[in-house]
Amino acid sequence: MRVLGSLDKAFQANPRNAFLAIRLAGCYRNRGDLERALKVLQSALEANPAERRLHYSYAKLLRLQEGTKGEELAYHLQRAFTPGDANYDAQLLYGRQLFINGDRDGSKVVFARLRNALVPSDVRDRLLYPLDQTFRGSIARMEATYCFIARDGQADWLYAHRNNMESSVWKDLIWGSRVSFRIAFALRGVNAYDVDLKS
After folding, report:
1. Which pLDDT does position 9 carry in this prediction?
2. Which long-range contacts (CB under 8 A, 24 or more apart) does 47-53 make?
3. The pLDDT of residue 101
4. DSSP tag of 129
5. Are 159 and 107 part of one and the same domain?
6. Which of 182, 178, 184 is nearest to 198 (CA)?
């Protein structure tokens, strides 16, 4: 409690200090006070609106708040990085949010840049931030180690690698197979995973 009080006092004296604001917001979040954590970062952003770290931390907290609008999340995530910097998580989250918001072209641009990130391939291919829903579609294209799924109700094809599904499912897939699947995101882009055959 004493540490929290000291941080709060220091932040009130200097709300432009991004490090203090992020640390204080983290303390409030750890105590379960998301609303207070968000208010700290809002105040810091008012005092220092160009600080990328504040936009990133604020967006991460907004993701935890029910009812947050997708446009607001995208706004802060876009300001959390500059193209070409090493904040790959912010860029991935921005591409993800554009995808969720229905801006498929914008999302593709973000992930096209991320594909060139100087990271090991296991990091580039790691699936992160899955969506809650299960989707349905049909196999639109088959290759030796991956396929594309045409998602029902959308004009998009989603990449699915054989490593991200059961081997028994992979061996039975053919062009036109009806499947259910989930969606997650990697630096290479949008991925279907947990693919399952539907009769």
Report:
1. 87
2. 47/15, 47/16, 48/15, 48/16, 48/18, 50/79, 51/18, 52/79, 52/80, 52/81, 52/82, 52/87, 52/90, 53/18, 53/22, 53/80
3. 96
4. S
5. no
6. 178
Taking only the tens place, the pLDDT of each residue in 121-142 is 889 899 999 999 999 999 999 9
Residue ending a domain, among 92, 122, 152, is 122
Angle at 100 between CA 99 and CA 101, to 5 degrees: 90
- What is the distance of C-alpha 20 from the center of its chain? 25
Is there a domain that residue 33 lies in?
yes
For position 1, what pLDDT does the model report?
Answer: 65
Question: Roughly what angle, to the nearest 10 degrees, separates helices 34-47 and 52-62?
Answer: 150
* Residue 93 pLDDT greater than 80, yes or no: yes
Please report, for the domain that includes residue 106, its CATH number. Answer: 1.25.40.10
Give the model confidence (pLDDT) of 29-40 as tens digits: 999 999 999 999
Report pLDDT for 130: 98
- CA–CA separation, 177 and 172 (whole Å): 9
Torsion sign over Cα 11, 15, 20, 26: positive
Q: Are 143 and 91 in contact (CB under 8 A)?
A: no
On whether residue 81 sits in a domain, the answer given is: yes
Q: Are residues 157 and 63 in the same domain?
A: no
Evaluate if pTM is beyond 0.85: yes
For 88, the domain range is 2-122
107 shares a domain with 49: yes
